[in-house]
Write a structure and sequence with these properties.
The two termini are 30 Å apart. 54% of the residues lie in helices and 1% in strands. A two-stranded antiparallel ribbon has the order 1-2. The N terminus is likely disordered. It has 17 helices and two strands. The protein folds into two domains: 142 residues, Phosphatidic acid phosphatase type 2/haloperoxidase (Vanadium-containing Chloroperoxidase, domain 1, Up-down Bundle), CATH 1.20.144; 285 residues, Orthogonal Bundle (Vanadium-containing Chloroperoxidase, domain 2). By secondary structure, it is mostly helical.
Length: 478
């Protein structure tokens, strides 16, 4: 994302000379999306928790801009439980960027309450620097003060709304069943300490064809970011524990758009069978054979889309990063960017709720469990298997939902560059379209050995339905 920012700023400076422009540019918005990604990574949020945080944060940013601007329409009355947003003070000039900034700051501080001290420091530092940038760009102290006060009111309203979604009282524990088809925990803490992101080669040895770790390849700092303890007060921003069932009650949270527990269900998985040649057996056998014959390109795809907690902003953050990249590449306006960010974040957040509902309803064992039990007891996956049931694939569901809304916003078959993991050595990835990216993200999971093909296919159907539901219900323009 920094690459696009530098290119865009260079063009902007060349085109404007020394002119002083008061309106905020798109970088004002993108700085927040980058901060969301960084905070989710630093706090090592799980994918569902990170998606929820992105949803509320994106809506706060959108509502601030919508309330003080003249082109965007408030989402109040369109999202479940969001009945109203405070009205702007009558007859007063406001700066949309500062209103959005303050709403965003209030919501982020609330969402990360009890997190690391460094998180609040980062939020405050960005807030103060952007306030300074706006006043330095000509926003008067009077307008700045009114804008910040109004943004604070919007942020508090969004937090009150968030408190009613069931997060605080959600089910946190799950007792695994003992039937042959049931999901069983597959990971140990030691596995995740030794394989930080998705595989050691993803972190520092991307060009190593064997994928074997070298002495000292994983730094202490990297391991610390994944494994350092959090205080008991961190219930509002919990880190991930890879050895227990992750968020078994997430499917019961209030969605942003979906209505009813049966909204956008996935088709049922194949009937379980351990009989050789059965459809279910063939699903597992495909992953087993594929894992034995992976190409280097397939390995790279698996690593690129891994997006594990602690080393990334999670899969939800990856799609937020895509939106930020589009803002620079396509020189989107701030309004267009907050619109894309909000709609994508809503779709992704609801995708995790719908997907997790399916996961714990079907409670299906992972490929590694099936393969080691019925095909090869020594078989190992390329990627670490996450701590929750197989069906449907979270990557496939949320990526299909994101692709659906982004395609509606920007069009079919629009190539773009994804620079999300440049810092991890992946380079910039060229993708033919949002749908092509979603397909690759889903396929990456059976390259990694952690999903059956049916998990991906079912997730695509479910995610596309969720994306269409968001588009049908949410109107962002006046």
């Amino acid at each position: 994302m920094r690459i696009w920012r530098m290119l865009w700023l260079g063009a902007a400076i060349a085109g404007t000379g020394c002119a002083k422009v008061v309106p905020a540019d798109v970088g004002f918005v993108v700085k927040w999306t980058e901060t969301h990604y960084a905070l989710a990574r630093a706090e090592r949020l799980s994918p569902p928790v990170a998606a929820r945080a992105s949803g509320y944060a994106a809506i706060a940013l959108f509502e601030g801009w919508a309330a003080a601007g003249d082109s965007l329409r408030s989402l109040a009355g369109q999202l479940n439980g969001l009945d109203s947003i405070p009205k702007p003070p009558a007859g007063s000039s406001l700066d949309p960027a500062l209103v959005a900034l303050e709403a965003q700051t209030v919501v982020l501080r609330g969402l990360y309450r009890g997190g690391f001290a460094s998180t609040d420091v980062a939020i405050t530092a960005l807030h103060d620097s952007l306030v300074g940038a706006r006043t330095g760009a000509g926003v008067s102290r009077a307008i700045a003060g009114r804008s910040l006060d109004y943004g604070n009111a919007i942020g508090l309203a969004v937090l009150r709304w968030a408190e009613g979604d069931g997060f605080a009282g959600r089910q946190l524990a799950d007792t695994p069943r003992s039937t042959p088809d049931a999901w069983q925990p597959t990971a140990t803490g030691a596995q995740f300490r030794s394989q930080s992101l998705s595989a050691q080669s993803d972190v520092v040895l991307l060009d190593n064809p064997t994928g074997k770790a070298q002495s000292g390849a994983l730094t202490g700092e990297r391991s610390l970011s994944v494994n350092r303890p959090k205080t008991p007060a961190a219930a509002n921003a919990p880190g991930i524990n890879p050895t227990t069932a992750l968020e078994p009650g997430w499917g019961a949270l209030r969605p942003f758009v979906l209505t009813g527990s049966e909204s956008c269900p996935a088709p049922p998985p194949l009937e379980f069978s351990s009989k050789p040649g059965s459809p279910f057996y063939q699903q597992a056998e495909e992953i087993y054979r594929l894992g034995q014959n992976l190409t280097e390109e397939q390995r790279k795809i698996a690593y690129f889309w891994a997006d594990n907690p602690g080393e990334s902003g999670t899969p939800a953050g990856h799609w937020m990063s895509v939106v930020a990249g589009l803002a620079w590449q396509w020189q989107l306006s701030p309004e267009r960017t907050v619109e894309a960010y909000a709609v994508t974040a809503i779709a992704v957040a609801d995708a995790f709720i719908g997907c997790w509902r399916e996961k714990y309803r079907t409670d299906l064992l992972r490929p590694v469990t099936y393969i080691q039990r019925y095909l090869d007891p020594k078989w190992q996956t390329l990627l670490n298997t996450p701590p929750f049931p197989a069906y449907t694939s979270g990557h496939s569901t949320q990526s299909a939902a994101a692709a659906e809304v982004l395609t509606a916003l920007f069009g079919e078959d629009r190539p773009y560059d994804d620079a999300t993991h440049v810092s991890l050595g992946h380079g910039i990835k060229r993708l033919a379209s949002f749908r092509a990216a979603a397909e690759e993200a889903g396929q990456s999971r059976f390259y990694g050995g952690i999903h059956y093909r049916m998990d991906h296919e079912g997730g695509k159907i479910q995610g596309a339905c969720i994306g269409r539901a968001v588009l049908a219900r949410v109107a962002t323009r006046r």
